[in-house]
């Protein structure tokens, strides 16, 4: 059975014009004889009545009293409403369709409300409806425990529903429809000659997502990667093919891998750098500081342990708590607010010694001090002042020739 | 286990002040040591985003294309949202509570979407939560098929959920909270000295509901009646005890039965009387006319078969269709638009020969012609001109002394 999973985000369903685009993508695949599973998010933008945020606002009418179980039950209604709406749209066009909750679609999860993990997908019912020739619409972002409790999958949950269904049904591809044309070499709000990428590897897109690019949730990518199901990130509002995401090796074999050292840039704003001077030996500093951060749920990044002490960064939201904790421990940290993290990502940079040299040269020429750096096989991170972010992104984008990414229709 | 089922309608949850009243009723019972199952309808009034009507409007964005199965799935979200909202309200007050869908509450139905019948209630989970000391909130109006499909119970569905749960759990009483003070002797918009009733029998309230009084759905009453569970219809906005509904015999035994021949009045407006002259023998007329009506789903009432032909009534909405059908059959009906049906209801009128005499006298004195009449053991119906409805109701109300119904706090 030739099968595709399509996922449409909430904005794709919130007005008549967008719904027409959704219908076009569905019809195109049906006309090609493809079987379809369509995953939908909750409707609309923040503030619209059936959006997830509006349901959450309802939940917060009484403070944060709503138990997690009931919060998930409430939120799951958002996607169910979307699914039935799309079903009515298809049926009105004479397209046979069925709308299923996550549980009805056989998506079983553990009981971690708010961020449940998919444990199993029972595909009997999906296959039954597919063999009846129906488009199977599945409410995204949700599953069910074996006890019949509604659960939600947390951030990026509908992407996860889509790739997990794709993996379970051995789909030819999972198309993630969104409001952008695909994955770009950098955020176009910051880099005006950012270019669309025809293909990236699973690892690269995970790096981009983990480093602040709003693309597709890493958990969703991980599931696709394990099953080897290709994913496309593409626009609801055009017929471009978007960005193909698959194994680097597949891209190389198919000759659609550009074999560049650097594929794209990502960034995170609102970072605070904290420096603590070592007094009682590095192990002690490290242990006490990071234990305190962990016990308060503060994510740390750019950890740089030196004989003289330790540097690390936290998100600006957490900085006051972090500083307070350090003072309780008897440390007086040096605080540098207003930093940004720039990530230079490329599956091809592994072992290429020149990449860091290009970064240092580009930023130095632009008069941008590097406050800290870190690197892995496929990513180099630099910490800079946030007020120099636009210049830093632009100069790195140019230095790596990302503006020369081949033009293509996507 | 001393257990009460409370049911709150949509208007009881749609604003902060109403929710405070709901909380008061719940707290009062909890303080008395009573276990509680609380059934809720969808929030709000027509036009509010989470009201049933608003969800239906969403469903109708694409005409009437939405299949019944998906329509039920969509509508069921309205009550689930209400249930979680009430759960957050209780939890914020430190009251342990759990919100369940109809299916999770063990309410199983057949697969007649839109008007499913309850086939079984599995009480294990309800009993488990009750024994944990939790208030169990159940989304009304819905159930689940054994296959896990969400179903809705049709009109009056939340009342049905409440009485069915009351019957399954052997509740001491089912309290139906609404925006009126209980059941009145007549509609107060038409009869200004209408009085609240302290008690009515199951049969009487069924007659009232079937004859146009907006009280509680007959199906809900029937379930309570079979199980012998008393029901109270009472106001969310006061502490009055409302109207007790139970077996006539129980009311008599407890001395709270007023032993009146007539308990109350109900009415239906917008009725059209059709008269067909018999040509080919009465059986033929009857058969052909009523078959045609039935095959088009037109409800008929006040059927009066005579040697000369047949009189009957239809609702004004159906009258054009009915007239068309009669003409197709070769009949030219006499049509009287603008009629109203008045029902005089009383469990004590059985065998009392004087009741019809009082009706005829009252209406004759008021100059109101009786266009047609019918009667059963517990109800007499008269058809009159709708423009004389107010006068007719008022004169009957006075003639039967209903304005003298004992004053009481309800």
Q: Which properties best describe this structure?
A:
homodimer, 410 residues, Carbamate kinase, 2 domains, six-stranded antiparallel beta sheet, 12 helices, globular
How do the strands and helices of this protein lay out in sequence?
The structure is a homodimer of 410-residue chains.
Chain A: E1 3-8, H1 16-31, E2 35-40, H2 52-59, H3 68-92, E3 97-100, E4 107-109, E5 118-121, H4 124-131, E6 135-139, E7 142-144, E8 150-152, H5 157-169, E9 173-178, E10 199-201, H6 202-210, H7 218-227, E11 231-235, E12 243-246, H8 248-253, E13 264-277, H9 282-295, E14 301-306, E15 309-315, H10 316-328, E16 334-345, H11 354-365, E17 372-375, E18 379-385, H12 389-399
Parallel strand pairs in A: 1-2, 1-9, 2-6, 3-6, 9-11, 10-12
Antiparallel strand pairs in A: 4-5, 7-8, 11-12, 13-15, 13-16, 14-15, 16-18, 17-18
Helix pairs in contact in A: 2-3, 5-7, 6-7, 11-12
What's the total count of β strands of chain A? 18
CATH architecture of the largest domain in chain A: 3-Layer(aba) Sandwich
Largest sheet of chain A at a glance?
A: 8 strands, mixed
Largest interface: A-B, 37 and 37 residues
Oligomer kind: homodimer
- Which term fits the overall shape of chain A? globular
CATH T-level fold name of the largest domain in chain A: Carbamate kinase
Q: Gyration radius of chain A, to the nearest Å?
A: 23 Å
Task: State the end-to-end distance of chain A.
Answer: 27 Å
Structural class of chain A: alpha/beta
SSE arrangement of chain A, N to C? EHEHHEEEHEEEHEEHHEEHEHEEHEHEEH
Q: What is the CATH superfamily of the largest domain in chain A? A: Acetylglutamate kinase-like
Count of helix runs of chain A: 12
With strands numbered from the N-terminus, the spatial order across the biggest sheet of chain A is 3-6-2-1-9-11-12-10
The figure for the number of domains of chain A is: 2
In terms of DSSP E residues, the strand content of chain A is 15-25%
Kindly state the mean pLDDT of chain A as a whole number? 89
Q: Percentage of helical residues of chain A? A: 25-40%
Q: Can you tell me the residue ranges of chain A where pLDDT is under 50 for at least 5 consecutive residues?
A: none
CATH class of the largest domain in chain A: Alpha Beta
């Amino acid at each position: 059975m030739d099968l595709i999973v399509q996922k449409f985000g909430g904005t794709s369903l919130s007005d008549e014009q967008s719904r027409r685009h959704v219908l076009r993508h569905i019809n195109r695949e049906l006309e090609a004889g493809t079987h379809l599973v369509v995953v939908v998010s909750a409707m609309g933008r923040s503030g619209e009545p059936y959006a997830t945020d509006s349901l959450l606002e309802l939940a917060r009418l009484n403070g944060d009293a709503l138990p997690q179980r009931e919060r998930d039950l409430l939120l799951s209604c958002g996607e169910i409403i979307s699914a039935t709406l799309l079903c009515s749209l298809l049926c009105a066009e004479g397209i046979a369709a069925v709308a299923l909750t996550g549980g009805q679609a056989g998506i079983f999860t553990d009981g971690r409300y708010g961020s449940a993990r998919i444990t199993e997908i029972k595909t009997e019912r999906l296959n039954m409806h597919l063999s009846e020739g129906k488009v199977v619409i599945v409410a995204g972002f949700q599953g069910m425990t074996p006890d019949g409790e509604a659960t939600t999958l947390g951030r990026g949950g509908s992407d996860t529903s889509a790739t997990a269904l794709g993996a379970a049904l051995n789909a030819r591809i999972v198309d993630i429809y969104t409001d952008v044309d695909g994955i770009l070499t950098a955020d176009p709000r910051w880099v005006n000659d950012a270019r669309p990428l025809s293909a990236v590897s699973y690892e690269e897109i995970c790096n981009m997502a983990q480093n602040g690019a709003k693309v597709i949730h890493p958990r969703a990518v991980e599931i696709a990667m394990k099953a080897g199901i290709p994913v496309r990130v593409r626009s609801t509002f055009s017929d471009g093919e978007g960005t193909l995401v698959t194994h680097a090796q597949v891209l190389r074999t198919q000759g659609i891998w550009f074999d560049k050292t650097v594929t794209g840039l990502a960034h995170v704003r609102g970072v605070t750098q904290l420096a603590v001077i070592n007094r009682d030996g590095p192990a002690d500093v490290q242990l006490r500081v990071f234990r305190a951060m962990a016990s308060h749920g503060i994510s740390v990044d750019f950890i740089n342990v030196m004989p003289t002490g330790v540097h690390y960064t936290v998100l600006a939201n957490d900085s006051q708590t972090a500083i307070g904790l350090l003072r309780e421990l008897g440390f007086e940290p040096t605080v540098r607010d207003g930093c940004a993290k720039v990530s230079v990502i490329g599956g091809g940079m592994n072992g290429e010694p020149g990449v860091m040299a290009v970064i240092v040269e580009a930023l130095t020429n632009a008069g941008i001090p590097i406050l800290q750096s870190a690197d892995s096989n496929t990513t180099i991170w630099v910490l800079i002042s946030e007020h120099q972010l636009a210049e830093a992104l632009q100069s790195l984008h140019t230095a790596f020739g990302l503006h020369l990414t081949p033009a293509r229709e996507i």
